[in-house]
Amino acid sequence: MFCVAPPESETTMNVTKGGLMLFSANSNASCMELSKKIAERLGVEMGKVQVYQEPDRETRVQIQESVRGKDVFIIQTVSKDVNSTIMELLIMVYACKTSCARSITGVIPYFPYSKQCKMRKRGSIVSKLLASMMCKAGLTHLITMDLHQKEIQGFFNIPVDNLRASPFLLQYIQEEILDYRNAVIVAKSPASAKRAQSFAERLRLGIAVIHGEAQDAESDLVDGRHSPPVGRSAAAIHPSLEIPLLIPKEKPPITVVGDVGGRIAIIVDDIIDDVDSFLAAAETLKERGAYKIFVMATHGLLSSDAPRLIEESAIDEVVVTNTIPHEIQKLQCPKIKTVDISMILSEAIRRIHNGPCAPWTRSRLAAAGEESEHQL
After folding, report:
1. What is the pLDDT confidence band of residue 318, given thresholds at 50, 70 and 90?
2. Using CA atoms, how far apart are residues 34 and 46, in angstroms rounded to an integer?
């Protein structure tokens, strides 16, 4: 049996087979904007569900229509109360599982606790714990975007689609930044150089790397690799045992590898939360002669007083996607701009639900320039 592709028209953007149900697991109304945009692009109605907290702060989920034998997609955007967000998702997934849903796909644009994906001395790998909880609750598929570390996919025993936001950010650079040909892509640390290189190669621009910045929380100074302790003598362990001690690291003075003088500097990263490192990078770039500074990131957590610090800084514009709601931060800081990524999320949902009998969606996605980590 052959699947015939319909003609290329705007109506095909809303073609989905029956049996798809779309839910938002957020009790916070501000977190539902992305879900509404995805539903509109898919041409489906949002499923009826009540998610709320009891007076004792327990989360309660009540699905108000049958999901038996349906493909359920649960969209969960992370709010400031991240732990409540996780419980809302887990309870809804388990509710769909016990209600005999055929499949349950979690659409989590920003995967919480993704920074805690490495062992830190006597700590734990929280990303692994969260992945196990989601799988145990009944999740059968996960759609996310720009994981902090790609290796997080290995924590799951279900398929994971790690989509990219870079095509949308690249499009913004080309369309909204005047004279972007005179720009240089900047990595604020050597750890983000690979991402900066990818942007630079796609835009045919140069690259600069800032080295020697202040040590951040993800340094290997706190990951337990200073064992045995540097101050302990090997002879104290055993007279015949000679273990070479590690030499403590020392950061060199801040240097910029690459020319930014008289050019537009575009700093790229995956997450912007605590903005101190971005502000320090911006000051360094200004001192080296950059006349405009942009910051591009997929996930705009923008915690604490980040909007005020950005407004008072040398940064001209901060561009983030709507994986996380930040309307309040935008009111506090006009420099914050948003790029909508609902298109690629709705396309991923459509492909997973429709299966291989929708070849026209692939051609539309390729023509638009979107791409994902894995072939859906």
Report:
1. very high
2. 12
Report which secondary-structure segment, H or E, holds 173. helix 166-176
Cα separation, 263 vs 285, in Å, equals 10
How is residue 46 annotated by DSSP?
Answer: B
Contacts of 317 (CB under 8 A, 6+ apart): 294, 295, 335, 337
Q: For tokens 């924590």, what's the residue?
A: 155
Residue 359 clears pLDDT 90, i.e. is over it: no
Positive or negative, the CA dihedral 308, 313, 319, 320 is negative
DSSP element (H, E) containing 318? strand 317-321
**C-alpha to C-alpha distance for 66 and 264, rounded to whole angstroms:** 54
Strands 292-300 and 317-321: parallel
Task: Indicate whether 292 pLDDT > 80.
Answer: yes
How do residues 259-288 score in pLDDT, each as one tens digit?
999 999 999 999 999 899 999 999 999 999
- Check: CB of residue 234 under 8 Å from CB of residue 245: yes
Indicate yes or no: pTM above 0.85. no
Q: How far is CA 360 from CA 3, 163, 283, in A?
A: 10, 19, 48
Residue percentage of the chain with pLDDT more than 70: 82
Distance from C-alpha of 245 to C-alpha of 233, rounded to nearest angstrom: 9
Amino acid at 76: Q
Mean pLDDT along residues 86-113: 96
2 pLDDT more than 70: no
Q: What is the DSSP string of 269-294?
A: EEEESSTHHHHHHHHHHHHTT-SEEE
**Residue 231 pLDDT more than 80?**
no
With beta carbons less than 8 A apart as the criterion, state whether 221 and 249 touch: yes
Residues 274 and 306: beta-carbon distance below 8 Å: yes
Q: What is the Cα–Cα distance from 355 to 361, expressed in whole angstroms?
A: 11
Indicate the DSSP class of residue 152.
G
Instruction: Find, among 149, 7, 140, the residue nearest to 74 by Cα.
Output: 140
- Tell me if 328 sits within 8 A of 299, measured CB to CB: no
The predicted structure's pLDDT at residue 221:
47
Is the Cβ–Cβ distance between 75 and 24 less than 8 Å? yes
Mean pLDDT of the chain: 85
Q: CB of 15 within 8 A of CB of 359?
A: no
Measure the CA angle with vertex 330, ends 200 and 35; round to 5°.
85
